[in-house]
Design brief:
Blueprint: E1 2-5, E2 7-8, E3 14-15, E4 26-29, H1 34-41, H2 43-52, E5 54-56, E6 59-61
């Protein structure tokens, strides 16, 4: 699974085992595809996130419905 903080100063998704129990303050994507992981870590996605997000203080507030679901993934991604 790819896991990321929903609020924070830095955007840093990471892989975690699916048997892990997560807090409500994390976003979870049910994927182990390194291509999606690379795209989520890219400068393109980071800029998209900062443009489409609201903020909490001056930190990124990653809202999956506003950022992940609206991100223009390439057609070759599932």
């Amino acid at each position: 699974m790819i896991v990321f903080a929903l609020a924070g100063k830095y955007w840093a998704p990471d892989f975690y085992a699916s048997a892990t129990v997560f807090t409500h303050a994390l976003g979870v994507t049910n994927s182990d595809d390194p291509g999606i992981f690379a795209l989520l870590q890219s400068a393109l996605h980071t800029e998209w996130a900062w443009k489409m997000s609201s903020s909490l203080k001056q930190d990124l507030r990653y809202t999956p419905s506003d950022i992940f679901e609206t991100f223009p993934f390439p057609a070759t991604f599932p």
